[in-house]
Amino acid sequence: MTRFALTRRTMLAATTAAALPLGASRAQAGALRIGAILSASGGLASFVPPIRAGIMLALNEINAAGGVLDGRRLELVEADDQTNPQVGVQVATRLVQADAVPVIIGPMASGITIAVANAVTIPAGVPIISPSATAPAISALADNDTVFRTAVPDGLQGAVLGRITRARGIERAAVMAINNDYGRGLADAFSASFQAAGGTVTASQNFEENRPSYRAELQTLAGRGNPQALVLIAYPASGGTTILRNAVENGFFSRFVLTDGMRDQAVVQAVGAQALRGTFGTAPGTAAAPEQRRRYEEAFRRANPTLDPAGAFVAQSYDAAYVAALAIQKAGQAEKAAIRAALRGVSAPPGEVVGPGDWAKARQILAGGGEVNYEGASGPIDFNATGDARGRIEVWDIADGRINTVENLSE
Amino acid sequence: MLELVNFYLLPGLVLGAIYAMSATGLSLVYGVMRFAHFAHGDLMAFGAYAALAAVDALGISPWAAIPIAAAATVPVALAADALFYARLRRSLPAVLLISSFGTGLMIRAGLYFVFGPTQTGYGMGFTPPLVLGALRIQVRHLWIIAGAAVAALALHLLLTRSRAGRAMRAMADDPDLARITGVDVAQVIRLTWAVAAVLVAIAGVFLGIDTQLTPGMGFNVLLASFAAAILGGIGRPWGGALGGLLLGMAEELSSFPLIGGAPLLEPAYKTGVAFAVLVLTLILRPQGLFRGM
To answer: pTM higher than 0.95, yes or no?
Structure first.
């Protein structure tokens, strides 16, 4: 999602906000309050209604199935960051200082997540779980293990692509990527991983969409450093197919490495199975187990007939709320450090697999001193060492004119 | 050096020929009716899809479908004129411009509706390039360049040798004078649309043959066509043709790896080159390259 820069004013705002009187509202007895920072107004506002519904669905299911700890209801304290990092820091400060929430879901944008983490939650030691921040930079935060996300970072596909390209015997590759965040980000991630695996990127170009011809670009790429394959990061109808056709027809390249944007049977039809023999690529894998996903979608539709359970980062939001609740249950107390320590354990193996709607079962296992492994609506979660959800990346190839899934890789 | 010819100059020429045919029509319409016809790109796509329908239905080659495409596109242009532009002829140029934009959207929506948004082609498959010594050229590119040359010649003959063509030029020079000297304005306007539609339909089929078909294909080259028309001096069909060739070549050559294998300019910005050429030309020769020549 959108990134925002952290400025000096942000820090100033944080200091001012921190000086406000504390304890304005205390948690009401019986209910256990957890925080959420969403961008309910501003640039990301349109994403919020289904995301909020995802969080509320998880909380309502949990409350209906007995609540957390000794039967306490979960209650959400929601704050609006206005899609603005300064405001995000202010409201985070309020949640941490005044409402004293032990865990926060959000923020949504990567830039706001970084601002909030650096200014407020890392110093305070409060764990945050963002459902939608995908910028690779978040993995690199010196966060004292307080920043988690159920979203899969952008860099993973490129990293896997670079590795498998080298593993398939390609040493020199030329990169051609669509001139936008998707293309540039993936190209960078690919190049870094390919070079780390011992490959050489002979040349790298960003191309403009919807050009009638790409021969000049391809000739420039093919004529430099003797590349063995073309790594093409594109969409079929806005240049990708044209590039493949131009490349095949003029003999610029005979081997292609593609990404999810080009994983389309129409590409095979337009370019020809013969020409694409030996082509392979990657795509975000089908992360969630189908039965977990189905249970979530059915429950979501029942609760919110007008919203889309498959909307952007909605399943991730549901999962963020669920793992937060599981961590509280596992920790046995609503205390920030204990929750932080429990988050990784409840999301990853070992442990008995629980999924969407399994709260009663999970509660019972945890009460009996057992371990659970939450397999969510968006994927297996399995927070890794940097607090990122483990996504799966599909490796596919083209054989006999059809696109086939070869394997699903994580990491 | 041969690389330059094979992969930069020839593609530039092919692209330029397509721009030229589209720009010529734009220039004609502007000359006779004094408005920027924004539906021109979508007429181009319509022509390309009309040929596709013929190719699919009759099993003919797209080259043979060119007359069908032209014949199908002319009534669309005439209908658009009769339904929308004729009623707005006396309004402000901006009103006509926006109405042509709307017409273009309608045509494009129709193409989306009938043919769907996915990219498609004439199913010609790949052909190895013709090798002439060290020169490598696709046969279809020769045909496109030759076809554009023939179309240009035919247009030239029409404009200079026929009475109707002379009437068109008279309208372009001074509409009021043409009217009082007995030129049948309605007739000239219809002829202008027919000529522009034929040219743009052929350009559409050529573009479809050289690349693929999408409903947005014509709109994507519309700006370049306008730039070519203005470059050549809008209202001058010949200027439009030369402007198209120039622009096509400038775009392709800008990414030529002159220094150490790196392109002169990241190809992502090559459309910018075309417009830089345009702006420079307009600063140095505000009337366009060929106006008044």
So the answer is: no
Is the residue at A382 inside a domain?
no
User: Chain A to chain B, count of Cβ pairs less than 8 Å apart?
Assistant: 101
Residue B266 in domain: no
Tens of pLDDT along B209-263? 988 888 889 988 898 888 888 888 877 778 888 888 888 888 888 777 766 666 6
Which segments in chain B show pLDDT lower than 50? 293
User: Tokens 């390309």, residue?
Assistant: B48
Contact A212 B207 (CB under 8 A): yes
pLDDT in the model for residue A149 = 93
With the C-alpha atoms ordered B185, B186, B187, B193, is the resulting torsion angle positive or negative? positive
Whether residues A231 and A244 share a domain: the answer is yes
Same domain assignment for residues A144 and A174: no
| B117/A248 touch (CB, cutoff 8 Å), yes or no | no
- Which residues on A lie below 8 Å from B247 (Cβ)? none
Looking at the 3D structure of chain A, how many domains does it have? 2
Q: CB-CB: which of A220, A237, A272 is closest to B126?
A: A272
User: Cβ(A297)–Cβ(A309) under 8 Å?
Assistant: yes
Please choose, from the candidates B141, B96, B145, B140, the residue with its C-alpha nearest in 3D space to the C-alpha of residue B244.
B145
Q: Does A210 sit within 8 Å of B207, measured CB to CB?
A: no
Domain range for B182 is 2-218
Shortest CA distance from A224: residue in chain B: B261
Closest Cα to residue A60, out of A256, A373, A302, A306? A302
